[in-house]
Amino acid sequence: MFKFVGLNSTATKSVAMKRLTTVSTRRLFNTESTSTVQAQKLLEAQRGARPISPHLTIYQPQLTWYLSSVHRVSGVFMGFVFFGTTIAFGVSSLFNLGLNTEKLVKYYHEKIPAWFDYTVKGGFAYIFAFHFGNGIRHLIWDTGKAFTIPGIYKTGYAVLALTAVAGSYLFSLGV
């Protein structure tokens, strides 16, 4: 076949050998053996430089995010207060510790300043009103209604309006 093209086999081998000898064998990176501790430190440093993917800062905040987050936090907060109070009264009655509503009310009115009283009552009034309104919103969704983007935003703004009105009403009752 080489004779047909006009080349002999020795000429082809010498061209191929010239090409192989001109290729440079240079490393593009160094390899070093590291200990397990060093490798772990390197890995932690690399992880620290990486962003969390996808990070929330790349998204535009939405009303739905805030309502969902506040609904969860308000539920957990009210649950801790309710169950903490219930457990405290239960343990007190089991072990005869003397905690009752009369003593609690007396302590509250004697020791708690007025500004703190208003803050606590206002906080609970608005948190309860918000959680109640958002719970009604979820019940509406459970029926399959208002489950479109415009419906979700309308019910979200309705919850905020209900929170303002009902929270103010509840706060005025406690003052």
Automatic annotation (TrEMBL):
Entry coiled-coil feature ranges: none
UniProt subcellular location: Membrane
Any GO CC annotation of this UniProt entry: mitochondrial membrane
InterPro entries attached to this UniProt entry: SQR/QFR_C/D (IPR034804), Succ_DH_cyt_bsu_CS (IPR018495), Succ_DH_cytb556 (IPR014314), SuccDH_FuR_B_TM-su (IPR000701)
Membrane topology: Multi-pass membrane protein
Gene3D superfamilies: Fumarate reductase/succinate dehydrogenase, transmembrane subunit
Record field: transmembrane: 76-98, 118-140, 152-171
Superkingdom classification of source: Eukaryota
NCBIfam families according to UniProt: succ_dehyd_cytB
Protein name from the UniProt record: Related to Succinate dehydrogenase [ubiquinone] cytochrome b subunit, mitochondrial
